[in-house]
Amino acid sequence: MDGCVAILVFYVAGLLPARVITWRKRRRCVRKRMEQSDWTEILITVPIAELEIAGGIAHMAVPYGIYVEDYSDLEQEVLEIAHIDLIDEALLRRDRINGIIHIYVSPEERPSEALQFLRERYAAAGIPHEIALQTCKNADWENNWKQYFKPLPVGQKLLIRPAWEEDCDAAGRVVLSLDPGSAFGTGTHDTTRLCLEALERHVTPGCTVLDVGCGSGILSIAALLLGAGHATGIDIDALAVKAARQNAAANRLNADQFTVLQGNLAEQVEGSYDIVIANLVTDIILSLLPNIPVLLKPSGMFIASGIILQRKKDIRAALEANGPRVTACRESDGWLCIEMENTP
Prior knowledge:
alpha/beta; Rossmann fold; 14 helices; disordered N terminus
C-alpha cells in the first residue's frame, strides 16, 4: 500500500485531523453537484501565528462555518491521531509557514461585500494576508455545517437549540430555537457568546433593547426570552431581517415584542432604550459611539462586541473622548466585549 492509499484509508475511517478531512470532502462535493448555481470560494492565506484570529474574522463573514488548512504540525498530528508515520507526499509538500482559510459565499450573499469586509478587518488587525477568489458550484456544504451546530449552553441561563434538533434536554435553561439561515449569529462564535452572557447580566423584566446589526436576531430573541419587554433589531441586510423575523416566530414572539427594521441606524431608529447592543466590527462601533448617549436612557447599558484585542486602545480612547463609562471589559480568544453605562 503506498502513502496515498494509506492516508485515504484513515480518512475514510475518520481518523485524520478535521481540516484535512474537510478539504477532501469539499472537493468531492464540488464534483457531485456541478449542476447547481455558482458560488464564490474565498481563500485567505495568512501566517500560521495569525491563523486563529484570522479564522475568527472569516467566521464573521459567513453563517455556516469555515474550514482551515494548517499543515504546520502535520507529522505529529497524524502520528497522534492515526498512529501512523506514512503520509501522502503531496501533503508533506504543503506550506508549513502559512495556513489557508476557505469560505464559501452564495451569489445572494454578495461576495464582494464579504471580500471588502475581510480586507478591512485584516488590515485593521495588522494581519498579513493574501486573498484569492474562485468560482465553484453550489454543493452540500450550504447545509452540511448544520451537523456541527448542536445544542449549546451559554452562560448560566440560556441554551441555543438548532431548529432542526427536535429532541433536546434543556436541563432547566431557557431554550432559544435558532435557524440562522443566511445571517450571522449562531451563538458559537466568541463575540456572540460574550454578548449573550452580557445580556444575562443586564436584562431586567420589561426593559427595552436595541440590537444594532441584528443578523439572525439571536441577541434580541435572547433578551426577550430573558424577560425584556420589547426588542428592536436593525440590519442593512434583507436576508438578515428575514431570518430574524422567522427565528422570532419560531420562538413564539410576536411583532408587539420584536420589531425588525431594515436600513441605516440613524434613519430608522427613534427613542431611547435600556440596553443597546452591537456585535459589529470595531470601526462601525467607533462610528456609533457619538449616537449612543442619545439612544440610551439614563443609566442604560451599551454592550459592544466584535472588537479584536488589537483595537482595545482605539476603543478606550474613543470612549474617554465621548462615550459612556466602561463598567466591564471581557475577553475571549482574542475578542473583546465592552459593557458601558450611560451615566447621567
